[in-house]
Amino acid sequence: MIGFIHQIQRRTPLGWLQLSREKGRLLVALSGIAFADVLMFMQLGFQSALYDSNTKLSRTLNADIVLVSPQARNTQNLGTFSRRRLYQAKDIPGVQSAQAFYSNTITWKHPETRKDTSMQVIGFEPEQPALNLPEVNQQLKKIKLPDRVLFDRNSRGSYKDAIAQVEGGKIVTTEIERRTVTIPGLFTLGASFGADGILIGSDQTFLHFFPRREAASINLGLIKLQPGYDPKQVATALHSHLPNDVRVMTHQEYIEFEQSYWQKESPIGFIFGLGTAMAFVVGVVIVYQVLSTDVNSHIKEYATFKAMGYRNQYLLAVVFEEAIILAFFGFIPGLILPIGLYNLAAKATALPILMTLSRALLVLILTIIMCGISGAIATRKLQSADPADMF
């Protein structure tokens, strides 16, 4: 191992010398790689924000098992089933409680601008906390009165004045479905691709917003188990006990169900995946053009090496050395720029777009592969070339 390290130290860095000789070409290559990396980072960032924002509410559900309609597709399109299934679920050993959960999108008037905005409103019995959000559970008494909702301070849009008034103890009102609504408190969750924010009210307030909706038609059934019972075993028992007009999932399975929709069925998830693939292809083309030009401009030097007895492996190693150098040096600005762009996008869209270590490592690996593929394509001419034909 030590001998191998000494051999590397004694080796002339031809790849770096060739790249650094043409500084203009090197800067163009690094700019192209950084551009491809920025595109991949942005596509992956928005894709991750899509999954995180649309499963955030699902993750906060205070339930071990979730009952959902078979027609449900995602949190904004859940479908309904009979509340009777909750009473039937209580017959299964291990079920401690079964709570109705209502959810739908609704249009409300911005408290300041009075413009219509799409929001997701959820309702449940305030006596039984339906969410694992301490900030919400501490304010459940405030929504017991009709037409009172808690407002998500991380909603998309400008709500600074309204939030400041609520935090200052002032009464803030707005209008939903021609009903005057009071905002007595705030909580923090965040917007999603499906709605600009979330409103939390009681089940009675929810039904006031949707007068044609029957109280017996619910969107989710939140089941809590007694200590010591396995959610998967109880879910299996519920599946056998309940009719097929309701679907039984553990809490984790419900989160995966929600994410699966955005990954496989939603066109948005496909678009971000395609965008990442296209950015990768763009990077391959850019690096190939640089390496191919470099190979062509030094073809006589490579021919001399061949004539001196150097094998193809040595010459290929030089080109791959250039590819790896381009990958690492191009990745640095490609990593720094998206951090600032993430901050701008997060402020503009209210979506959870953050740089993560796993994503940075993924893009670095993709960059190395991208440059490696380009190097492999660029070296085809060297492998088949005859030194006698190069002069």
Question: Tags for this entry?
Answer:
alpha+beta; two-stranded antiparallel ribbon; 391 residues; 11 strands; elongated; 14 helices
Please describe the topology of this protein:
Blueprint: H1 2-10, H2 14-21, H3 23-59, E1 65-68, E2 81-82, H4 84-89, E3 95-109, E4 116-124, H5 134-137, E5 148-152, H6 160-167, E6 172-176, E7 179-187, E8 198-202, H7 203-209, E9 217-218, E10 220-225, H8 231-241, E11 247-250, H9 251-265, H10 267-297, H11 299-307, H12 312-349, H13 357-378, H14 380-384
Parallel strand pairs: 4-8, 5-7
Antiparallel strand pairs: 1-10, 1-11, 2-9, 3-4, 3-10, 5-8, 6-7
Task: Write a structural description.
By secondary structure, the chain is of the alpha+beta class. Helices cover 54% and strands 17% of the residues. The chain is built from 14 helices and 11 strands. The protein has helices at 2-10, 14-21, 23-59, 84-89, 134-137, 160-167, 203-209, 231-241, 251-265, 267-297, 299-307, 312-349, 357-378, 380-384; strands at residues 65-68, 81-82, 95-109, 116-124, 148-152, 172-176, 179-187, 198-202, 217-218, 220-225, 247-250. The strands form 2 sheets. Strands 6-7-5-8-4-3-10-1-11 form a 9-stranded mixed sheet. Strand 6 (172-176) and strand 7 form a beta hairpin. The longest helix is centred in the C-terminal third of the chain and has 38 residues, at 312-349. The two termini are 40 Å apart. Residues 1-9 have low confidence and may be disordered.
Q: Terminal Cα separation, in Å?
A: 40 Å
Portion in helices = 40-55%
- Evaluate the radius of gyration: 29 Å
User: What is the mean predicted local confidence, pLDDT?
Assistant: 83
Task: Outline the biggest β-sheet.
Answer: 9 strands, mixed
The coarse overall form would be elongated
Spatially, the strands of the biggest sheet line up as 6-7-5-8-4-3-10-1-11
